[in-house]
Amino acid sequence: MEVRATARYVRTSPRKLRPIVGVVRGKKVEEALTILRFLPSPSARTVARVVKSAAANAENNFEMTQSDLRIVKIYIDGGRSMKRYRAGPRGRVKPILKRSSHITVIVKEEE
After folding, report:
1. Which domain holds residue 87?
2. Among 59, 64, 86, 96, which residue's CB has the most CB atoms within a 10 Å radius?
């Protein structure tokens, strides 16, 4: 059985999160958390939080053991962008997009 956890509207752009997610895809949950702890990016902490949440969902709701869980799917989708504007040259306006992301983690128990 697959168990899922999602973090929505995370205030980090998908472009910054996707390399972090690629490192832990397909790994065991314990191994993934260890890798995320030592990654230099501050966004790794957010991804680790979602992985822990998926493991806790599996453990509490479906009575799976955390040591047997593996990350089957983990992906980043783009969320809503906040649109801001900054003064540009010659009286013009330059747009600024403050992007957000949705992080989805799906874990499954190995047999």
Report:
1. 2-109
2. 64
Q: What is the pLDDT of residues 68-111, one digit of tens each?
A: 999 999 999 999 999 999 999 999 999 999 999 999 999 999 87
- The torsion of the CA quartet 36, 41, 43, 46, rounded to 10 degrees, works out to 30
We report the CATH number of the domain holding residue 76 as: 3.90.470.10
What per-residue confidence (pLDDT) applies to 111? 77
Phi and psi (nearest 5°) for 79?
A: -100, -165
Element (H, E) at 62: helix 43-62
Q: Quick count: other Cβ atoms within 10 Å of Cβ 64?
A: 19
CB atoms within 10 A of CB 91: 6
Q: Which two tokens stand for residue 110?
A: 């190995």
